[in-house]
């Protein structure tokens, strides 16, 4: 082999074109030159410099909303100078309202109290929808059903174009009759069913966190032992502690002290003193000492000392029957 040979090769660069379909409508995308027929085949490699036109076709129940990614707007022609992805968005040919966000409720609140809700409604359909009303519920689970508690306070949502969102805040009030418990907050778009939509079952959204509908609960956790004997008409000191073991702070209250022939508070017991209790935060206590006076006409004999929290029934509590505590020992009332 005395001759020289030269070898030439042409390397042609190729780039990938990928089509992605977005939105809750449906449709297909084809390409020219051929190679893409999406959903079945959504990507193709083309020689560098190739100009590719993509055509989106909505199904009969949908609307093509436009291109994004490598293209924008209604038409898509790309020149393959790099790997590219074009996104075709299809929407239903009807409105479809969904709640895309709802704020979390307070961790705890009493029946009858109010709080603020912020939510967003999206029309993910391909056509506009006239004004609607969003309503709010407390629900034991994250789904709306007939057992849920409708909150007062609604939000009017204006006409929404395709892909438009309305956000707003409202003050809502928990119905006074709501049973104590743990609830999700639901926001439900078009809750009065004023507008026909592609999907009527996706209109509600639950909060991420729950609200405990609860009340304060005051009770006596200690009451001092009375003296072994006391002369009627005279006084002795009582120290007691009130605890708020409920889920909400309580307002100010009054503890009263009684002498009782048995360890249970009833209508026969004699009022001997009282103590003012300040507002108590959750888990807070109040301890204090007051002087109580045995009535001069008190029948002689042994008595329990009973302290009763919120004995003027100023505070509405989750449990109104646990407020009294009797001393372990009795005091004998004697004559002067
Ligand atoms: Ca809907
Ligand atoms: Ca509807
Ligand atoms: Ca109580
Ligand atoms: Ca009470």
Notes on the structure:
The chain contains no helices and 25 strands. The protein has three domains: 14-91; 97-213, Immunoglobulin-like, CATH 2.60.40.10; 218-334, Sandwich (Immunoglobulin-like), CATH 2.60.40. It is elongated. Helix content is 0%, strand content 51%. The protein is mainly beta. It starts with 13 loop residues before the first strand and ends with a strand. Strands 10, 12, 13, 14, 16 and 17 form a six-stranded mixed β-sheet that branches. It has strands at residues 14-22, 27-32, 37-38, 43-47, 51-58, 62-69, 76-79, 84-92, 97-102, 108-109, 114-123, 132-139, 149-150, 155-157, 165-173, 181-188, 204-213, 218-223, 229-231, 235-244, 253-260, 270-277, 285-293, 301-308, 324-334. It binds calcium ion (4 copies). One calcium ion binds at residues 310, 313, 315, 317, 320.
What topology emerges from the helices and strands here?
Elements: E1 14-22, E2 27-32, E3 37-38, E4 43-47, E5 51-58, E6 62-69, E7 76-79, E8 84-92, E9 97-102, E10 108-109, E11 114-123, E12 132-139, E13 149-150, E14 155-157, E15 165-173, E16 181-188, E17 204-213, E18 218-223, E19 229-231, E20 235-244, E21 253-260, E22 270-277, E23 285-293, E24 301-308, E25 324-334
Parallel strand pairs: 1-8, 10-17, 19-25
Antiparallel strand pairs: 1-4, 2-3, 2-5, 5-7, 6-8, 9-11, 11-15, 12-13, 12-14, 12-16, 16-17, 18-20, 20-23, 21-22, 21-24, 24-25
The structure holds calcium ion (4 copies).
The site of one calcium ion has 5 residues, from loops.
Task: Give a summary of the structure in a few sentences.
The chain is mostly beta strands and 336 residues long. It has strands at 14-22, 27-32, 37-38, 43-47, 51-58, 62-69, 76-79, 84-92, 97-102, 108-109, 114-123, 132-139, 149-150, 155-157, 165-173, 181-188, 204-213, 218-223, 229-231, 235-244, 253-260, 270-277, 285-293, 301-308, 324-334.
């Amino acid at each position: 082999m005395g001759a020289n040979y030269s070898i030439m090769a042409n390397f042609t660069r190729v780039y990938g074109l990928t089509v992605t379909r977005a939105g809750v409508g449906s449709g297909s995308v084809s390409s020219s030159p051929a190679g893409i027929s999406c959903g079945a085949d959504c990507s193709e490699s083309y020689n560098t410099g190739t100009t590719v036109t993509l055509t989106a076709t909505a199904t009969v129940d949908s609307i093509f909303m436009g291109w994004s990614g490598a293209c924008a707007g209604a038409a898509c022609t790309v020149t393959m100078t790099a790997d590219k992805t074009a996104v075709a968005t299809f929407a239903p040919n009807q409105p479809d309202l969904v709640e895309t966000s709802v704020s979390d409720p307070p961790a705890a609140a009493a029946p009858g109290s109010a709080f603020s809700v912020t939510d967003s409604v999206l029309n993910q359909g391909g056509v506009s929808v006239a004004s609607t009303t969003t309503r709010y519920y407390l629900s034991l689970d994250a789904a709306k059903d007939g057992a849920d508690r409708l909150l007062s306070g609604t939000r009017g949502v204006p006409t929404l174009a395709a892909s438009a969102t309305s956000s707003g805040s409202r003050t809502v009030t928990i119905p006074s009759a709501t049973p104590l418990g743990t609830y999700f907050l639901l926001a439900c778009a078009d809750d009065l069913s004023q507008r026909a939509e592609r999907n009527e079952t996706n209109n509600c959204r639950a909060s991420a966190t729950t609200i405990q509908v609860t009340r304060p609960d005051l009770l006596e956790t200690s009451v001092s032992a009375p003296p072994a004997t006391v002369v009627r008409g005279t006084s002795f000191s009582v120290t007691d502690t009130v605890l708020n073991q409920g889920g909400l702070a309580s307002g100010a209250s009054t503890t009263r002290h009684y002498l009782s022939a048995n360890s249970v508070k009833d209508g026969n017991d004699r009022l001997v003193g009282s103590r003012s209790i300040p507002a108590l935060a959750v888990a807070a206590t109040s301890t204090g000492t007051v002087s109580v006076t045995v009535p001069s006409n008190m029948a002689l004999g042994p008595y329990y000392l009973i302290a009763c929290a919120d004995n003027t029934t100023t505070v509405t509590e989750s449990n109104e029957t646990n407020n009294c505590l009797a001393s372990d020992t009795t005091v004998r009332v004697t004559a002067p």
